[in-house]
Amino acid sequence: MANYAARRGARTGATVWRVRADGTQQHIVPDGVLDLMWFQDRLVVAGADTRAMTVRTRPGEVTWGLRLAPGVANALLGVPADELTDRRIELAELVSPPKRWSFEDDVADALEQVLIDMWARADPDRSLLRIAASLDRAARDGLSVRETAERHDLSERSLRRLSGRLFGYGPKSLAQIHRFQRALRLARSGLPLGEAAATAGYVDQAHFTRETKRLTGRTPAALARA
C-alpha cells in the first residue's frame, strides 16, 4: 500500500484517496464501502466488493477516489446498493451527469464538487443516513445479526433487506469485511498476525487466514506485505 494515500476532503469532510499503479494490474480487496472514482479520465462508481477485484492499469497511472459514507450511494444514485455489488459502472449510466467540473488541475476538489452537486440535487433523507451510519457502526463493533436487528427495532429479514439496499450486502457479510479490514490494518502496522486476528475478533490466526483466503484468494501474510 506504499502508493496509497488518503485525507479528509476540505469541502465535504469525505475521505479522498489516491493510488498510483506500480504495474499493469491493481488488486483490490473488499473494504465495505462504495466509492466515486476518477479512473482513466472517467467518473466511475465502484460498488461494494464481496471478493478481490483485479483492475487493468498502466504503470504510474493515478486513480482518485472519494469514499461515500454509509447509505449515501443509495441516496444519490437512486438505486439499491446491491445492484452495484462487485461492479464498476460509469456515473453517467446511473444518473444524469452533474455540472461538468474540470479534472485537469485538482482532481480531489473536482470529486468533492461532484458530490456537492449530486447531494443538492438528491436532497438525501437524513434519518435514513443516520440509520445507515448506526448499522455500519454495529457491523464494525461485531454485533450479530440478531443484536443489530434488536438494536434498530427491525426484524432480521427487514435488516437484511435494508442492509442490501444501503451497503450492497447483508449485515453478516458487512461485519465480516469490517473485521477482515481491521485485522489487515493491524497486521500492516506491524502487529503479529495472531495478535491482529485476536484483536479484530477472530477465534484464532487460522480463522483469520481462512476468511482472508475466502475474501481475497491470498493469505494475510501476503496482503500485509503488499
Automatic annotation (TrEMBL):
<dbReference type="Pfam" id="PF20240">
    <property type="entry name" value="DUF6597"/>
</dbReference>
<keyword id="KW-0804">Transcription</keyword>
<protein>
    <submittedName>
        <fullName>AraC family transcriptional regulator</fullName>
    </submittedName>
</protein>
<keyword id="KW-0238">DNA-binding</keyword>
<feature type="domain" description="HTH araC/xylS-type">
    <location>
        <begin position="125"/>
        <end position="226"/>
    </location>
</feature>
<dbReference type="InterPro" id="IPR050204">
    <property type="entry name" value="AraC_XylS_family_regulators"/>
</dbReference>
<dbReference type="Pfam" id="PF12833">
    <property type="entry name" value="HTH_18"/>
</dbReference>
<dbReference type="InterPro" id="IPR018060">
    <property type="entry name" value="HTH_AraC"/>
</dbReference>
<dbReference type="InterPro" id="IPR009057">
    <property type="entry name" value="Homeodomain-like_sf"/>
</dbReference>
<keyword id="KW-0805">Transcription regulation</keyword>
<dbReference type="GO" id="GO:0003700">
    <property type="term" value="F:DNA-binding transcription factor activity"/>
</dbReference>
<dbReference type="InterPro" id="IPR046532">
    <property type="entry name" value="DUF6597"/>
</dbReference>
<dbReference type="GO" id="GO:0043565">
    <property type="term" value="F:sequence-specific DNA binding"/>
</dbReference>
